[in-house]
Design brief:
Elements (H helix, E strand, L loop, with lengths): L1 E6 L2 E7 L5 E3 L2 E3 L1 E5 L5 E6 L2 E10 L2 E6 L2 E9 H7 L2 E2 L9 E4 L4 E6 L6 E2 L4 E7 L2 E6 L4 E6 L6 E2 L4 E5 L1
Antiparallel strand pairs: 1-2, 1-9, 2-3, 3-4, 5-6, 6-7, 7-8, 8-9, 10-11, 11-18, 12-14, 12-17, 13-16, 14-15, 16-18
């Protein structure tokens, strides 16, 4: 699984395979993370160096304290990153027509809008079930539903356009 990590102003890609091997920016990383009796305290060993981490959940991710320095860290797994991905048909980000695509195959469970509806940013548009999980596709911005290309019960392939916003 790939993770996109933002710590302060720095971005990293971390990969963890099924055997627990870790890659940081594509390079192998010899690391071991162990929890303690305190649910916020961890021991991290990288190479031959040991670090004590205090990790606490906070809005938008985690607050990590290491060697007296605190970092706000956001972690997004590959699946969430794909689900957040929407592409603009016109090339513009906040204006123009925008296609909402399914990043994975599945079955449409619900279509919460119809053509002509005015939607707010964050409003649920379509729900797709994939691998027994319900994935809500939300409006990335305010707009008007220009087209709805799926209906409840429809099977969709990866990259199928579900609807478009204008």
């Amino acid at each position: 699984m790939k993770y996109n990590v933002r710590a302060g102003e720095s971005d990293f890609e971390i990969q963890v395979d099924r055997k627990g091997a870790i890659r940081l920016a594509g390079e192998p990383l010899d690391a071991d993370l162990q929890s303690s009796a305190d649910p916020t305290l961890y021991s991290l060993i990288i190479g031959h160096r040991s670090y004590e981490l205090r990790i606490e959940p906070c809005e938008g991710g985690y607050r990590v304290r290491i060697h007296g320095v605190t970092y706000d860290v956001a972690v997004e797994d590959e699946r969430a990153h794909l689900l957040a991905g929407v592409k603009s048909l016109s090339g513009g980000g906040d204006s123009g027509e925008m296609a909402i695509k399914s990043p994975m195959p599945g079955v449409v469970i619900d279509v919460a809008v119809k053509v002509g509806d005015l939607v707010e940013a964050g409003q649920t548009l379509v729900v797709v079930e994939s691998m027994k999980m319900h994935n809500e596709f939300k409006a990335p911005r305010m707009g008007t539903v220009r087209s709805v290309r799926v209906e409840r019960g429809a099977k969709v392939a990866q990259n199928t356009i579900l609807l478009s916003l204008g």
